[in-house]
Amino acid sequence: MTLQTQQLIQRSVAVSPQTAPASTGQPWRGLKRLAAFVWWVITGFGLLGYLWGRKSKARMEEIVIYSVPRSFFLWGLVVAGFVGAAVVGRYGPDSHAAHLWGWVYVWALLYTIVTLAFDVSTWKFFLWTLIFAFVWLVSKYLEDVRDMYLLSGVFAYLRGLRPVLDVGFATVVSWLLLLGWIGGLFHAFGRGRKTFSPNSIEEWYLGEGREILDRSGLKFRSRYRDVLESVLGLGCGDLEAVDGNGNVVKRWESILFLFFVWRKLDEILLQRAATVDSAPGDVIEVRPVTGAAAMNLD
Questions:
Q1: Counting CB atoms within 10 angstroms of each CB, which of 109, 163, 246, 294 has the fewest?
Q2: Residue of 238, 269, 265 whose CA lies nearest to 252
């Protein structure tokens, strides 16, 4: 028996009722999935494993990724609050550090609000950057040539406010936001887990069950719709499944570290697996496809 394909070939083995796993193994499977999620958090949400993990044949046959809710992007403000409170608590509320971290916290708060409220694409980001740069240059020209003070007056007013980071306020806000961030992690664990294999995409929903999508005839593309989210998500982006007519049949938003895992994910998406039923002792010969047959394989 010869199968002309250059992809993975798996032999399916019928499981008899005597060897079928018992339903009592379901709780252990849930505990195993929970332990894997805890390890995913400890290892930097899987980033360390993606970058420096050992490559094995079994691991390359599938990849597990997580989509996160918007509450995950609160971590920047949480860290800024805790770190700033620790520094100001050490040097005192009247120190230069208190004023410096006051501005740091203001900018972290503004960045987080814009990230959660708006989708800033790459083109929008560069467009608004050019607009603000043009306004600043016009303002400097009017100040130097016409003695008309515009933005300088606004900046002087803001500097005069001298925001100071309050240790108690920053700490309380960080603790409250940390609860929302942890809730986002549990949401990612319960509803954001996706397993990509050569033939299918499996999604697991806590308390509901699984959803399996057949990959045949689908193309995949990555989209980074929000550059601010991509920064806080360390390469976070969206993944779209497109059919032969160009219609998006499935979209997974806010995939964590998509920029870094795309190379390994692309290796899985380019694979196809074939299942061959054969009796024990049958010889299966595998050889690469060449010529026109290779072009029409998919």
A1: 246
A2: 238
In contact, 257 and 50? CB cutoff 8 Å: yes
- The neighbouring-strand residues paired with 219 are 242
| Start-to-end C-alpha separation, the chain | 21
For 205-220, write each residue's pLDDT tens digit. 877 888 888 888 888 9
Q: Is residue 250 within 8 Å of residue 240, measured between CB atoms?
A: yes
Closest to 166 (Cα-Cα) out of 107, 92, 234, 276 = 92
**167 vs 291: CA distance, rounded Å:** 70
Contact 222, 258 (CB under 8 A): yes
C-alpha to C-alpha distance for 40 and 196, rounded to whole angstroms: 17
* pTM, 2 dp: 0.72
Ramachandran assignment for 121, one of left (phi > 0), alpha (psi -120 to 50 degrees), beta (any other): beta
**Confidence tier at 127 by pLDDT (50, 70, 90):** very high
Q: Which pair of tokens denotes residue 285?
A: 């010969």
Tokens of 50: 């993606």
Can you give the C-alpha Rg of the chain in angstroms?
A: 26
Q: For residue 91, which amino acid is it?
A: Y
Integer Cα distance of 236 and 298 in angstroms: 30
What pLDDT is recorded for position 284? 55
117, 150, 228 from 131: Cα distances, Å: 20, 16, 18
Least confident of 50-59, 85-94, 158-167, 194-203: 50-59
Report the distance separating Cα 177 and Cα 195, nearest Å. Answer: 29
Per the CB < 8 A criterion, the answer to whether 184 and 192 are in contact is no
Where is 8: in which H helix or E strand? strand 8-11
